[in-house]
Amino acid sequence: MSAAQRQRTCAACGGPFEPGERTDLETVMAGGILYVAVHPHHSTHPPRREADIAERLAADTAA
Ligand SMILES: [Zn+2]
Question: Is residue 39 pLDDT above 90, yes or no?
Fold first, then answer.
């Protein structure tokens, strides 16, 4: 049984998978390597957005 069939929902957004929908697998380190199913282009590890980085830099400068 695939991760998608086991999960039924996307590990990233929580939305249900449609029958036959293509899914991507992602590895999660949680006391071992887990494989979770996500929608294509969804990720449980979203890249940090530039705005977040800019905000952090501004906060560091102000401190
Ligand atoms: Zn999703």
Answer: yes
